[in-house]
Amino acid sequence: MIEKLIEEIDNALLHDLYFAAMSLALALPDICGRAEYPNANVTTRYILWYNEYIGQYEQCSCDACRKAQMPYLSGEVIYNLRNSFLHQGTPNIDSSKIKDSANKLDEFTLVFEKKNEFDIYVDASSIISSNDGDVSRRSYRVNVRRLCQIITLNAKGYYHKNRDKFDFFNYKILDWDRDSCSLFGTTEKEGEK
Q1: Domain range for residue 145?
Q2: How far is 73 from 76, CA to CA, in rounded Å?
Q3: For 7-65, what is each residue's pLDDT tens digit?
Q4: Cα(34)–Cα(27) distance, rounded to whole angstroms?
Q5: Residues of the chain with pLDDT > 70: what percent?
Q6: What single-letter DSSP state applies at residue 17?
Q7: Is the backbone of residue 125 left (phi > 0), alpha (psi -120 to 50) or beta?
Q8: Which residues pair with 129 in a beta bridge?
Q9: Which of 4, 20, 63, 133 is deepest in the core (most CB within 10 A)?
Q10: What gap in Å lies between CA 159 and CA 132, rounded to an integer?
Q11: How do 135-143 and 107-111 pair as beta strands?
Q12: 0.85 exceeded by pTM
């Protein structure tokens, strides 16, 4: 199932279907979190899995960024995005639901960008300080292609190392076109005639 979802995310991005790709990508930490932390509640397992496999690498390790508490894509931020987007249809980040003060965002921006030659995309975070040095505005700009990449690559790697933990997948998928063609010894192209 993980591999099929990732294939569909990749296909959505190939056709610039950013919201479709992001919707599926935001579901992957749910699935992997259930595998890794089966007894934890949804919120806890989502955030724990994301932070362990992705979030800790999203935080800048330089002294200046750590001292300034630069915003980053933490498990709390992504879980908040997941909830807002999948349940309310809006990519808002509700900072009142984020405990980590460094990630209480005042502005959150999604970036849609066509596929580029090297498949490298960037995010940006910023802090604007007032004249007295207090933080007055925290923002984060996330490239949807990059977000999908980091989630899918980590979910795929996790799945391949932990297939045995995915024993809760208890269903079958029937690809009618493919399976009926193989039953009759034809290809899908021949079956279309």
Answers
A1: 2-192
A2: 8
A3: 999 999 999 999 999 999 999 999 999 999 999 999 999 999 999 999 999 988 889 88
A4: 11
A5: 93
A6: -
A7: beta
A8: 135
A9: 20
A10: 48
A11: parallel
A12: yes
